[in-house]
Amino acid sequence: MLYAHTPAVGSDEWHKLDAHIFAVARMAQEFAEPFGAGELAYWIGIWHDVGKCNPAFQEYLKHCWLDPNHRGHGPDHKAAGAIYAQQRVAALALLVQGHHGGLKSPAEYQNWLAEKQQQHGPAIDQAITAARALLGTLDPSQQLVLPATIQNKQHASEFFLRMLFSALVDADFLDTEEHFNKEKAIRRGSSVSLADLWARLEAHQYQNSGQSQSRVNRVRHTIYEACLAAAPLPQGWFRLTVPTGGGKTRSGMAFALRHALAHGLRRVVVAVPFMSITEQTADTYRAIFGMGDTETPVVLEHHSSAQHTNGETADFTPSQQWARLAAENWDAPIVVTTTVQLFQSLFASGTSPCRKLHRLANSVIILDEAQALPAHLLIPILDALVQLTTHYGATVVLSTATQPAFEAIPLVRQLQPYEIVPEPKQWFDALRRVRYDWRTTATMSWEEIAALLRAEPQALAVLNTKRDALAVLKALDDTSALHLSTLLCGEHRRAVIKEVKRRLSAEEPCRLISTQVIEAGVDLDFPFVLRALGPLDSIIQAAGRCNREGKLTQGHVVIVRPTEGSTPYGAYRTGVGITEKLLGSGPLDVDDPAVPTRYFRQLFDTVNTDRDGIQKLRAQLNYTEVARQFCMIDDDTEDVIVPYGSTNQQAQVQHWIDQIRRNPTQTRYLLRRLRPFMVSLRSREAARCRQRGLIGALLPDTLPGVGIWYGKYDSLLGLRADDLDLERLVA
């Protein structure tokens, strides 16, 4: 008898190798069937653990069983299957080799294989012979080939192998889990169908429809109806161009569910640019669809601060346990995630982030605030979306008030996205809730800007940098003013937003000085907004925080040019320059969707939309380097845990720190709990602060990128230190 795994703790049942191989093959086949790769997936499932037929590997398993403290990975079990795959379809060998350890480049694979053949040639041959005897055959009845639709198409082939890899590794994880933890396996998935979810949304809409006949609500209802009317249209690319406050969160989901039902799709994935909006969006959907502990969970919220992955489950509710499991492979009917999580996974090489990718086939993908996608990565991002819509049965919805002119990029020029809401300009005209006041011909001092804010009892000011925000705060000299930037940890920012909402609702004085961290989706409603001249889409997003609910006849948005203002480098500064160029013809009517389109066309013509050469690396199947180079956020950073919050909160933070130091195996789980109490610094600035004794080590050997802040942390300003280089903190 040959085995795949030792018995689970407390059991004497070994995991039979043939049962594991056949189960993985069948499950991988099921996962890959939606994109026409079921047979290929089946055979790489058959080959993936052929090497475990090696007698040395079987001895290794027995040794592990007899000595539970035994450490080590044991003899290689991938080379035999990789060789067999290479002899059938060469590219598939990368997937077999990568099913533990992740995808590599062809050069890395060849070097690895040469080493294995030299060291273990006879053992590899012996394993293949034994596997053939165990399984009956290792050969399909007919020659395997890659689908004709992707042959000789470099990026399509790269993406196809990535999706096939996802089907394999998820199947391998799941069958292994079934052996070691049957109770965990049972908790996976959701019994709620998309039809059930549509019924809940329809009922919720009926209860709320007509509750208010305000101008804003009438427009929202018309937009909702337009989304339902467009749902039966053929799959592909769609635009949901809706003015800020037009109800696109609910209406977009209505379109997605009806569209999915019309075309037999499996799930809805909503990706948003910031974690704060992720939480806000997920809460909106939970309110509609229900997610109590007595109900079957349906909404998965997945991002780096979500506290539901890894760690013990004893203190978790059933819905939290479900979320932990669903986050591993997105086995949920509705997934709300960040664009960082979505696209970093799409270009990852590791097994864990790649597990979820096959779930994107036959899904509706809503990209909320699509204009926020990083310009320097647009070509690889858009190419991945083209692959999903062309070959994997996905529909993509670009949802935003400021539609980016992606058609200006040659890669997607042939696409003709369908406007879900016909003639969107009419709704921008109907929801004109603010008056834009362009005071950009001359500059303004900080004191002049502060005077404008003092004249308004409720005012939001959005500056381009943290340095500028603090300068306005100082000039304002208002002890009741609030501040929002990444100098504040996430928990602190949430508390500020909560207090802002309370003051606005109570009609109390409220002046908030912020960086662009406030823009794009944070649900605030000020009567007056001041915005430093910035990229046009940022100006429009800031204006979305003004008169959001249409309670006033008109809100007031003032755009100023600070005399001493600063601007971040890169695409942001380029965007400022393009906005200034457009202003050369006079004030801009940014409520006309054609204006942002002109802006984005010029932006995409100016910046390098594949700055890091991702497409060239993909064409080479260099998965290792693609994963290294594809960074949606600057990874040259370090995080520091700051002393924010109540006495109880700070005690809890210290408890988590102590737990990490006592039991490093819980580090990943506990770091997620600590994430809301962290601030990010550029590595160079962190090194300078460390030399000054402002940063202490958490786990110096294994966590060099996470420290403990021993400097000042202000209840208004956040992270503080003499001579701190503010722009070396993450924007």
Describe the overall structure:
It contains 28 helices and 21 strands. The strands form 5 sheets. The protein has a 7-stranded parallel β-sheet, with helices on both faces. The longest helix is centred in the first third of the chain and has 30 residues, at 106-135. The protein is globular and about 85 Å long.
Quick recap:
The protein has 731 residues and is of the alpha/beta class.
Structural class: alpha/beta
Report how far the terminal alpha carbons are from each other: 59 Å
- Indicate the proportion of strand residues: 5-15%
Would you identify the regions where 5 or more consecutive residues have pLDDT less than 50? Answer: 307-315
| Topology, number of strands | 21
Shape: globular
Q: Tell me the number of helical segments per DSSP (H or I, 4 or more residues long).
A: 28
What is the radius of gyration computed over CA atoms, rounded to a whole number of angstroms? Answer: 27 Å
* Oligomeric state, counting identical vs distinct chains: single chain
Main beta-sheet strand count, sense and barrel state: 7 strands, parallel
Query: What is the helix fraction of residues, given as a range?
Result: 40-55%
Give me the side-by-side strand order of the main sheet.
Answer: 5-6-4-7-8-3-9
Compute the average pLDDT: 90
